[in-house]
Amino acid sequence: MSYSDLAESASETKEQLVANLRRVVSDAEDLLAATAGQTDTKITELRARAKENLHLAREKLADADAALRARARQAAEYTDEYVHDNPWSSIGAAAALGLLIGVLLGRR
Fold it and tell me: Cα torsion at 25, 26, 30, 35 (round to 10°)?
């Protein structure tokens, strides 16, 4: 597995985490909407705090998503640049890694 593959795999995992967090925020908003009719003072205070926290979470989630995409793009650019600048080193490293994996799998 190359550095590019690892970076892509990590990026996909982080994207799944961001998607899961979005679902949690959405579910929390649905819960707030479902309890909108409650008039108890404590529930009203909790709803107000939850709304504010959800707003902050959405902002941080958007920032994290943008940073994640920027880092993934930068890693892909660095990898592409390295491979173009050092094609034989890249081929040698890939061949060595393939040989190592082949030896390890051959032991089974």
Answer: 10
- End-to-end CA distance of the chain, in Å? 19
Which residues span the domain enclosing 44?
3-106
For the chain, what is the domain count? 1
Amino acid at position 24, single letter: V
CA gap 79, 1 in Å, rounded = 13
Return averaged pLDDT per consecutive 10 residues of the chain, 108 residues in all.
Answer: 57 72 78 75 75 79 82 88 88 90 88
**C-alpha count within 13 angstroms, C-beta hemisphere, residue 5:** 3
Residue among 25, 3, 18 nearest 76 (CA): 3
The amino acid that residue 53 corresponds to is N
Tokens 């943008």 belong to: 66
CA atoms of 44 and 38, how far apart (whole Å): 7
